[in-house]
Amino acid sequence: MTASDAAPSAAPPEASEPVVEAEVEAEPEPRGTRLDRWWARMLSTPRRRALWMWGGPIAVALLAAVLRFWNLGHPQTLVFDETYYVKDAWSLWHRGYEAAWPSDFDERFADGDTMAFYTSPAYVVHPPLGKWLLGLGMALFGAGDAFWWRAATALAGTLAVLVLTLVARRLFASTLLAVIAGLLFAVDGNAIVMSRVALLDTWLMLLLLVGFWFVLLDRDRSAGLLARRVANRRLDGVDPHYGPALWARPWVVAAGAAFGAACAVKWSGIWFVAAFGIYLVAVDAVARRREGLPLWLSGALLKQGPVTFVLFVPIAVVVYLASWTGWLVTDGGYYRDWATQLGNTATGGFAWVPLALQSLWHYHEAAYSFHLGVHSPHPWQANPLTWLVMGRPTNMYFREVDCGDGGTCVESIMGIGNALIWWAAAAAVLYLVYRLARYREWQVGAVLLGLAAGYLPWLMYPERTVFTFYTIAFQPYTTLALVFVLGLVLGSRDDPTWRRTRGIAVVGIYLFWVLAVSVFFYPLWAGIPIDPTLRQLHFWLPSWG
Questions:
Q1: What is the pLDDT of residues 118-150, one digit of tens each?
Q2: In the Cβ-directed half-sphere of 90, how many Cα atoms lie within 13 Å?
Q3: FRET partner for 524 with CA separation of 20 to 30 A, picked from 4, 276, 289, 506?
Q4: Exposed, middle or buried by CB within 10 Å (0-12, 13-18, 19+), for 98?
Q5: What are the Low complexity biased-composition ranges (predicted)?
């Protein structure tokens, strides 16, 4: 037997059985992290979720309160423009109008001589509401202690942190991002300083932010109401054409009142009235188009638009005029009797206007001319083009004091924002402009509109004497822009583990250094005495010193 006989003959290739490769199922890519799973267990009950939903925002608001109220009565002296607003607010609560004071009276006022105001009026160029609000603490507890000059403003700054968390949750549908937004605003230097000095701008910011929140609340409510009304008409066999006119929009009325109150603090609030009035109409047009209404644009402009105007603008005007009640019901305010003087009374078509309102109109003309003519140089003025990167922060207070060991320390209050927040927020704003153009996300559009209304009008007056601390009015929107980007970096629990882990690490490290920078800078925000050399180490840009 040969070897070839002993071995089985090999089958020809074409006769062999087909080879089937076994399909190997790829293991699913792991998603989320241990931290996500632990957090899900922590929020596994409705009670725990509710505790987090409200406990997180309240916690950052309490942190903000500590940073704003701690040692608030220091220094016991009028700081920067407190020389105007504190004394104006105090006399306003007593006279009903801002009264004049003796010249060079700041030291005597700080020492407790608070009743030396005259019966004659002072010429002021901002509406009264901000001073009524600023003076709440003094009205309740007296003006002898600087703490009460600033307490109402510190409260406004604290409430703004809480409102910002509610706005962020409405925008991003995430309590975590809402808490991050509140945390960033709570620990930022510009927000802290503007809450610790008795100026008008923090009240302006708070009222504008409340109005923005009300607009967001209306957006969801009115869209649902429109959808139900359109569906009911179609069920009844009626072609909706333009769609219904919605009168039941209480949040629009509330937004108008909030924006009107902001205008009654500073006139710059008028830009928010205009911007969000247009926004309300635009959002309604998009909602009508989404419902498939054939005449959606005409319905938004010609049918719902006038209704929205009636709900939104008149209440703003009424609230604004109401802020002048003290001036109107007394006879001592500046220009109060202007229209009664010979040659000033209106004739012709405006003769019917009450003399008090004619005088008030003249007051507004004079104040507007004053604002346009503010060109006097100031060592801490700042070009608006540098505001978003905190190019020239405002030094509001500086004094040399004894350290107690024979050396000299310095106290200062400087509105230097936390650089890690501001510079990152400026980059985030640029990214959001790109993202709006590409993806047209409504959240991005709303945030950028708030920023535009608060910032862009200042670019029309480059020759005016203006300051970086004006940015507090639109700082909530730069903060929201930053939080939007942080949310993208953070990702979600459904992301691949490697990406989610990296996102959590990046955001966690960033927030750690934000807090570290705030701890380092807090002495310059609260007037804590420090060594002059240490103070110089805080000036990261030449323009800061």
A1: 999 999 999 999 999 999 999 999 999 999 999
A2: 28
A3: 506
A4: buried
A5: 1-19
